Amino acid sequence: MSSRPRLRFAPSPTGYLHVGGARTVLFNWLYARRHGGEMLLRIEDTDTERNRPELTDNILEMIEWLGLGWDGEVVHQSDNLDSHRAAADKLLGAGRAYWCDCTPEQIQQRARERGGPPGYDGHCRDRGLGPGPGTALRFRTPDEGTTEFDDLVRGRVSFENRVLEDFVLVRANGTPTFLLANLVDDAEMGITHVVRGEEHVNGTPKYLLIGEALGLDHHPTFAHLPILVNEQRKKLSKRRDSVSVATFRDEGYLPEAMVNYMALLGWGPPDGVEIRPLEEIVALFDLADVTQSPAFFDVRKLQHFNAEYIRALDTEAFLDRVRPFLAHGVATEEVLRPIAPLVQERVRLLTEVEPMVDFLRDEAIAYDDASWQKHVAKHGDRAAAMLDAAVAALAAAPWDRDAIEAALHSAASEAGFVNPEGKVQMAKAQGPVRVAVTGRGVGPPLYESLVVLGRERTLARLKDARARL
RNA sequence: GCCCCCAUCGUCCAGUGGCCUAGGACGCCGCCCUUUCAAGGCGGUAACACGGGUUCGAAUCCCGUUGGGGGUGCCA
Question: Cα-flanking dihedrals φ and ψ of residue A175, to 5°?
Answer without folding.
Answer: -85, 145
